[in-house]
Amino acid sequence: MSSTNEQGLQNKTDTPSGEELSSELLAEFHEANRDNELFASTEDPEFEFDESGLQLASKEAELDLEAELEDLAREQAGEIAFRSGAITPEGLIEDDFEKELGTPSDAEDNDESEFRDVAQYRILEVAGDDTYGRKVIVASACRLPPSSQINHERLMEYLKYTLDQYVENDYVIVYFHYGLTSKNKPKLGWMLQMYRELDRKYKKNLKALYLVHPTNFIKLLLNIFKPFISAKFGRKIMYVDYLHKLKEHLHFDQLVVPSLVLEHDAKILSAQKPSYPYSSDESEAAVHNPKQQFGVKLQQILQNYKCVIPPVVETCVEFLRKNALDVEGIFRRSANASVLKDVQKRFNQGETVDFDEINDVHIPAVTMKTFLRDLQEPILTFDLYQPVVRLHTLEEDRQLIEVQRLFREELPKENYIILKYIIHFLTQVSQYSDSNKMNTVNLAIVFGPNLLWPKGQANLSTIGHLNSFAAYLIDNYTQLFVR
Description:
alpha/beta
């Protein structure tokens, strides 16, 4: 480490001047420009890249970026930032950068309605969990309005407000880059400010940042920003050239993919001439063995196993009840991917899984969440989605009556029994919240989108209603489950 520290920016005298920093950034910029011919003109000067995503659109993009780099360099020269960070061989700084960046002042608590001016664009969406049980947050560049129509400081506040609801859990971000234009592109200084303000609190539990349809432009930016990006954070960035590649890690059907992005992906796929990978319903086409538990209909499991509670649910719950009620962050943490896949495979083969042999309480926790989300239809059924989302419009005393009616008249008996079993267990988990830090609200954030989701794509506003409903079930268990 000492040799690495010697390469770092140690003190003020090692910090380059504004002119030196500007020259370095611009030199790197022009070198990339020459090598990759990034700034050739295209037929559509509005976009920063052409349909193949390999070229930037116009000379204006070069001039704009060059000017922003000069401004950014002058700004950085006066800040003496990152001078104690050790530089890795890849040009990234080590993970002690947070203390140099400082901690931004805590924003005042804001009700979601206060961000209606930004939320209306649906730039950010929450899309349930990925295949490893981590919350998925989607950001779409094509939904950014022209810079003249949005306050980017407000956008920053809204971004932090949204992330604040999930950063205590493991989570991933999917960024759809297509659609970023010269009209809606934020300034480079704002992008760097965003990275700084999203301090360790936000980066700690971020497990992956998927950059979908990356262009040479965004790769160039990341290269320029290397001095400001930690080595650990840099390893979380993953380039995804085609949407179907996300299916290896995410539930594609729950992703909120803008139509512009879908159309762009279809164009680049047709140019490569593979078959369109998500034009058919794979869940309908798949042939399941009789012992299959993940990715099938609930009724199929109950019929094939002659049971009331699916074996995977009962096995996970009973183990967690005995061994993990007081484990801090239970249901928040992700699990080892290879072990998780092996456990799912064994359950699908009808084997009995002994979690004592695995010696990791997070494996059954994530297995349980994954099972619920992989069902072809949610435990609460598609039919109850709209009634649940509308529930918040009723007065409090009417809500209890309506939920009791839904459970009595519309929720199938077998679904009701399993839901009651799960919610009863979650009430037990919440009773240990002083030690496990999983109170009703935190449990609801984890389980809300796994108990109910729409046939199409959910959006951020409805996710909040699902979370509230899950919390309502836990808080009012004895009054609701009387059937």
